[in-house]
Amino acid sequence: MNAKNLIIALVATICAPVLFSGCATIFSRSSYPVHINSNPQGANVIIVDKHGREVYSGITPTSVKMKASAGFFSKAEYRITFSKAGYTDKTVFIDADIDGWYFANILIGGWLGMLIIDPATGAMWKIDTKYLNETLVKTETSSDRELKIIDLADVPDDLKRHLVRIN
Fold first, then answer.
1. Is-contact 151 160, C-beta < 8 A?
2. Quick check: bond before 61 cis, omega within 30?
C-alpha cells in the first residue's frame, strides 16, 4: 500500500464515524437508569409505556433502565403506579425530552444523523429523571375512625366558632 492510499484510508477511518452517525448517538445514549423508591419501601411498582404495554413490574427499591424513544421520531412516555396494601395507589409520569446533542448535527452538517440515525437509535431523546422517590398515603379504615363525645367546655376557643347548633 503506497503512502497516498494509506492517508486516504486513515482519513476515511477518522471521518466515517462522524459522517455516518449522529451527534446524539456519539455523545449521548438511548436508555437511562431510573432509581425508584417509595416510602414505605416494599411497594409494588408497575411501569407501562405510552402504548399501554407493561415494561416492568417489581418491588421498591429498584432500578430500571428506561428507553428514551418509543419509535422513529417518537419520545417515550411512562406511567409508573405504586401500590401497597393499606396505602392509596399513586401514579406518576415520566417522559423523555429532546437531547441537546441532537441539534449539534446542524453545526457539523450531519443531516443523515439528524434525519435518520439519531431518530432511529433513539439518541435524539433523553430522560432527565434519575431518582423517583414517592411517599404513599395510608388509607383510612373504619377502625381508624372513632366517635368521641366531649363537653363543650373542653372544645378549644378557636374551634368553637366552627360549631353548628343542632336542635
1. no
2. yes
Return the C-alpha cell found at 116: 435518520
Locate cell 433502565: which residue? Answer: 65
Q: Report the C-alpha gap between 78 and 130 in whole angstroms.
A: 14
Whether residue 26 contacts residue 118, with contact meaning beta carbons closer than 8 Å, is answered with no
Best CA proximity match to 31, nearest among 64, 74, 65, 80: 65
Cα distance between residue 109 and residue 92, in whole Å: 39
Domain ranges, ordered by start, for the chain: 3-156
Rounded to an integer, what distance in angstroms lies between the CA atom of residue 15 and that of residue 100? 22
Q: Which amino acid is at 82?
A: F
Q: What are phi and psi of 63, to 5 degrees?
A: -135, 130
Identity of the amino acid at 76: A
Reading the chain (167 residues) residue by residue, the pLDDT tens digits are 676 666 665 555 555 454 444 444 555 667 899 999 999 999 999 999 999 999 999 999 999 999 987 778 788 899 999 999 999 999 999 999 877 666 776 666 566 666 767 667 777 788 999 999 999 999 876 565 677 788 888 888 888 787 887 87
* Helix (H) or strand (E) run with residue 157 in it: helix 157-160
β-bridge mates for residue 80, sequence order? 47, 92
C-alpha 111/C-alpha 159 separation (Å) is 69
